[in-house]
Amino acid sequence: MKKILIIILLTQLYSDIPDRRIIAEWEHALGTMISWPLGIPSDLVIELANEDILYVLVETNNQQNLATINFNNWGVNSDNVVFINTDTYSYWTRDHGPQFVIGEDYWKVVNQYFNGYPEEDGCQENLLFDNNNNITGRPLPAELRGWEEDDDTSIDFANQMNWDILELPLYFTGGNFMTDGYGMGFSTQLMVNENNISNNEFKQIVRDELHLLDYHIFENPNASSIQHIDCLAKLVNSETIIIKQVPESSPEYECIEDFAQSFYELNTFYNRPFKIHRIYCPEINGGAWELNSVAAYTNSLILNNKVLVPQYGITSDENALNIYQEAMPGYEIIGFNNDTGNPWYGEDALHCRTMGIFDPNMIHLSHKSVRTEELNVNESINVEVDIVDYSNSNLGLQSVILNWKYSAEDGPFNQISLENESDNIYTGEFPSLNSNSLIEYFIIAINFEGNTASHPNAGWHTFNTLEFILGDINGDNSINIQDIVLVVNLVLNNEYNNLADLNLDSIVNVLDVIQLLNIVLE
User: What is the pLDDT of residues 260-275, one digit of tens each?
Assistant: First the structure.
C-alpha cells in the first residue's frame, strides 16, 4: 500500500480577535496629535501632515493664528491640519492624549487621569548615586501652571470629533504603556505605583475597563527616572519588539538585560515567542533631570507605512535606522534630528511628543505569519487570516489576496485569492517553493466600498524556505546515480519521500525516476 506523507504547515490562529480591544500603534491611523507651542522640529510637522491628518492642540485663537502662519511658511499641507481647542499645558501629547477601544459597533476614546511625571528608583543592585535630590521627573515648563491643565485634553478632543468617551479611573500615562492590540499590555512598575494600588488591583481595572486580559508589569529598570517603557522597548507588530541595549559600562546594563530577558520568556497572541531585535543606545548629554542618559531610539512613532525615528547626530543613528528596517521590512524608515530649544533627550524624544489618532472604520487583519523555524517542507504552506471590518459595512469583503514573490526577483508580486473558510476566516496556500529562498509576502483585503487593509500594515513578511535539494535523497548535496537507485527502491516498495517527489504530485513513481535521470544526464 502506498504510504503518502503530506506535511502541511497551518498558520491557523490560536485565538480569535477580541470582541473589544485597545488599538496598537501600527494599526491604521487617521493621523497624529501634537500640541502648540511645538516640542518637535518643523520638518517633522511637515512630514506628519504630508499624507495624514495633523491634529494640533491650541488654547487660544492667537495660538491658532500663530501656528497657521508658521505652518504656511514651512510649507505644511494645510488641508490636513485640524485644530483642537483645549486647555493644554505641555507638548507631551503621548502621555495625556487618548487611547482608543474598538469593537464591532463600539468605539470609545479613553480619558485617563494625568498629573505629570513622578520619578522612581529602580535597578537597585546598581544604584550608584546619591538619591537625596529633589528632582521629580520632567521639570514643569512654567511654575505658574500645572499638569492638571493637560488632564482634560482627551475630553475636548473626543467632543470635537463627536466620539464617545470611556472614563478610566486610573493614572495611565501613555508613554508607559504598550499593547499588542489583542489584549496584552506592558508597563513598568511605576505605572501601578502612581495609582497607589496593588498590581492585582491595577490588572483588574484594566481588564474590566480596557479589555487588557494579559498585563505584564516590569520592575523599574532605570536607576532613577520616569521609567517610561517607550524609552526602553518598541512593539512594532504583535509579535516583534525592539529593545534598548545600553553600553556594558552603564550602571543600568544588567537591569536592562534583565528587562529584555523578560520578553524572551513571553509568548505572543499566537502562542509562540516574540521576535526580538536589540538596538544599541549609547550615552548622550541628556536633560538636567536625567541620570545615565542614553539615546532613546525606541522612542519612535509608527504612522501607517512610515516609522519616524529620533536621531542625535551621532554615529549610532544609522545603525538605529537599519535595525528598524530589519524588523519592519518594506516600511519607510525616516530619521529626524531635533535642533530646537527642546531637543531629543534620553527620557523624552519623538514618541513622547506625538500621539496617533486611529480610524474607527478600519479593516483589521489578524494573521499568524509564516516562520522559517516552523517549516517542515517547502510545499503545502497554508496561510490563514481573520478579518474584521469595523466600518459596519454589511456588504462583506470583495477579495482577500495573498501577494508573494522571491526576494531575489525584481518583478511584481504573484497573487493568490484566499477563500472564505468560515465566518471571518480566509485560507489558501503558497505554491511549491524553491529551496533555500527568501520569500516576501503580504495579504490585502478589500471590501465592497473599495476600502483596503493589509497585513502587515505596510511592507511585507519574510521567511526562508528550507535548504534541501529535491532529488538529493541521501543528503550529500549532489544528485547522482546513488539517488536514482534510492528512488527506484522507493517506487518498488510503494514508499514516499518528499525529496524524491520531483514533480510535486504527492506520489513517487516512474515519472520521478525519469525526471531524476534527466537531471543526472544533464
Answer: 999 999 999 999 999 9
In degrees and rounded to multiples of 5, residue 65 shows phi and psi of -65, -45
| pLDDT of the residue at 153 | 95
Q: Give the 3-state secondary structure of residue 355.
A: strand
Read off the pLDDT of residues 119-157 as tens digits, 9 standing for 90 and up: 999 997 444 443 433 345 666 666 667 788 899 999 999
How, if at all, do strands 306-310 and 332-336 pair? parallel
Instruction: State the Cα angle at 221 between 356 and 33, rounded to 5°.
Output: 10
What CA–CA distance (Å, rounded) separates 119 from 129? 15
**DSSP states along 142-174:** -TTS-GGGGTTHHHHHHHHHT-EEEEEEEE--G
SS3 480: coil
- Which of 19, 8, 16, 21 has the alpha carbon at shortest distance from 368? 16
- Go through the domains of the chain in sequence order and give each one's CATH number: 20-358 (3.75.10.10), 363-464 (2.60.40.10), 481-521 (no CATH)
Closest CA to 304 of 336, 323, 332: 332
Amino acid at the residue 199: N
| Cell numbers linked to 330 | 518594506
How many residues in total does the chain contain? 522
% of the chain at pLDDT higher than 90: 76
**Kind of pairing between the strands at 214-218 and 184-188:** parallel
Q: How far apart are CA 464 and CA 436, in angstroms?
A: 6
Question: How far is the C-alpha of 387 from the C-alpha of 92, rounded, in Å?
Answer: 34
Residue 502 pLDDT grade (very low, low, confident, very high; cuts 50, 70, 90): confident
Say what the pLDDT of residue 141 is: 63
The cell for 178 is 504598550
CB 228, CB 347: distance < 8 Å: yes
| pLDDT bucket at 505, cuts 50 / 70 / 90 | confident
Residue 378 CA neighbour count, 13 Å, CB half: 20
Rg of the Cα trace of the chain? 26
Average confidence score pLDDT of the chain? 91
* Strand, helix or coil for residue 514: helix
